[in-house]
């Protein structure tokens, strides 16, 4: 059956719904555990560095396996791939729920991550295959519910559950949904994606693991360990060298594991650049607002999560609407409007004080979320539309990998900027306080402690504001790049990518 015939048939909505639910619970699970880490530390008597591996390890497995997803999607049928991935995720969830030791819980999280890593690229690839290019915006807009809303709902949902129940309930509520998804997939899932008889290059997997894994771990550790830690800059250096070696190896291969030649398509390259910049800017609010709300203003983690909930709801409502608008108007107009809103609201966040109300913060964050909902999926879809169908697995794998890495880089960058600025401001305020102090005055220990607390609060607030200002400049860069977006015509997705001789001859597309 040809690609054209696939697209002329009615899209398999039931199948997409099953994939949708599977991807949603797996991505939701990535952020679900963060609020529960203190409870897990207490139950298993582990320190903060050890328990953090429940999040870091999950992220690392994703970073290692997502680049390889292009190979898996091309080599195996979407039915077999989804059943394998969802089964792994379900087994990991069950094991995590009943885990008697921290080691078993960590192993369970790794198994979950192995299943979760393939979900997003697979769902994106199925949707790009099932829908014609002129309807992909609406389809990918619905897909945005998974990519945007699931991670945003995680902290709020887990905050409420941990406050009222055991942390194990986080896995107990996901488990029946995961089991039901597997059962439905067995009976309802069909094969629609093309397969190619290609072989996996083991050395490419090794380079990819060291490359993306090194970058993710290095940058995600920089916030807590500091940039001077040999382990931080050592893993980043290993990551960079491995990725350079990976790129050079892939460019010499007829059937690469991850096709870097797709960056020769200008709209895909531009969409990737905008997505990277936007991911870095997006993490400013997700990281800095909880620090401001909880550390400086004294709100609970639950209240911090609730503040972000309206923004997540708005993004969920807007995602399919934005998809329809993309089909009608293209990505450029939406991206310019959305990024303009993002720039303005991020700048307002750079002027926080201790008086701004909780409601005002919620409204500002919600407006910012509204702006960002108009950018990511339209820009990404426009870039993917320029790729020929055989290269969409590489495009989806590349996009998901870059988002993982840029998210880690963004969080490390903004935490570093905040800490550096706060330390500098604290030193400046301390010097000023000492200079203004009367040498003959007797100052109590309590007064000194109060003054130090005030200095630290003011310095931290200054650091947060400066990080938001840096984030504003990053968002401005994304806005400047958005001016160069042009709409991809339907016939462009059949353009052939320049390949070495013999690559097309090995193409053996079979749709069962």
From TrEMBL:
Keywords: Cell membrane, Membrane, Transmembrane, Transmembrane helix, Transport
CDD domains: MFS_LmrB_MDR_like
Entry keyword annotation includes Cell membrane: yes
A GO cellular component annotation in the UniProt record: plasma membrane
Membrane topology note: Multi-pass membrane protein
PROSITE patterns in UniProt: MFS
Residue ranges of domain Major facilitator superfamily (MFS) profile in the record: 15-490
GO molecular-function terms, A-Z: transmembrane transporter activity
Top-level taxon of the source organism: Bacteria
Pfam family for this entry, one: MFS_1
InterPro entries to which the protein is assigned, alphabetical: EmrB-like, MFS, MFS_dom, MFS_trans_sf
Membrane-traversing stretches: 12-33, 53-73, 80-98, 110-131, 143-161, 167-187, 199-219, 231-248, 268-293, 305-326, 333-350, 464-485
Subcellular locations according to the entry: Cell membrane
Annotated family: Belongs to the major facilitator superfamily. EmrB family.
PANTHER family for this protein: MAJOR FACILITATOR SUPERFAMILY MULTIDRUG TRANSPORTER MFSC
Cited NCBIfam families: efflux_EmrB
Protein name in the entry: MFS transporter
Taxonomic lineage: Bacteria, Bacillati, Bacillota, Bacilli, Bacillales
